[in-house]
Amino acid sequence: MIKTLAAAAMLAAATLAAPAALAQGAAPARVAETAKGKAYVDARGMTLYVFDRDTAGKSNCTGDCAKNWPPFTASAGAKASGAWSLVQRDDGSLQWAYDGKPLYTWAKDTKPGDATGDGVNNVWHIAKP
Known about the structure:
Residues 1-23 form the signal peptide. The protein has 129 residues and is α+β, with helices and mostly antiparallel strands. Helices cover 19% and strands 23% of the residues.
């Protein structure tokens, strides 16, 4: 019983922590001007990227890759709508995707508007609207 109550409390806390707009299905990212033109950015204004080696609905960036390219994670209770979807990662966490493509930030971008990850290894690209 205690485990059940603890699990329920954790789920409730995670759900309450999710921004209300996301829980209602609003876009998890916004469009902003970056060094490479208009792109989707996270709440901090950091450029979002897509990875050519991902398949629709599946992230193939794990381990060291995910350290350099942190997944654009979703909070528990987030609701996808329209072109926005949620991808379950191998570790069970949720990641936002746009048009089925999982989204990431780049560890070497240091300030909002940076887009230094665009074109890395010819497989990383800014997520364009």
